[in-house]
Write a structure and sequence with these properties.
single chain; 120 residues; OB fold (Dihydrolipoamide Acetyltransferase, E2P); five-stranded mixed β-barrel; 6-phosphogluconate dehydrogenase; transmembrane
Length: 120
């Protein structure tokens, strides 16, 4: 019986570490800039805040041409979402955190915007 409890404890410890690493460990963070394409609240069970910015720059498209990149993100803070929602089409610098996995109540993406650095 003693070995059962030791084995169970080890399995639960590894499971806890895996869940923490997958869903709560901040893998990276930074700032993305671009034009806000949309900010919406959606979901069947968990209503989450989602958005997309369009980043412009030189890419591997046509030679010498300007290519656009999309950055889809989730927002946890309702106040940040309201500011984004009211200013669609403007240029934003958004600070985000990147997780290894998405949680249904946190959003549909693994990128979570936590604050607005600047808006133009």
């Amino acid at each position: 019986m003693k070995y059962f409890w030791i084995t169970l404890s080890i399995v639960l410890l590894f499971l806890g570490v895996f869940v923490w690493y997958k869903y709560f460990f901040v893998f990276g963070e930074g700032v993305k800039s671009g034009y806000l394409n949309y900010a919406i609240k959606k979901g069947y069970i968990f209503k989450t805040y989602e958005g997309k910015i369009i980043q412009e720059g030189f890419g591997r498209g046509k030679t010498g041409g300007v290519t656009s990149y999309e950055f889809e993100f989730s927002v946890e803070d309702p106040e940040v979402f309201k500011k984004l929602e009211m200013n669609s089409g403007k240029t934003f610098d958004l600070h985000y955190k990147e997780y290894n996995g998405a949680l249904p109540w946190r959003g549909n993406t693994k990128y979570v915007v936590d604050k607005i650095v600047s808006m133009k």
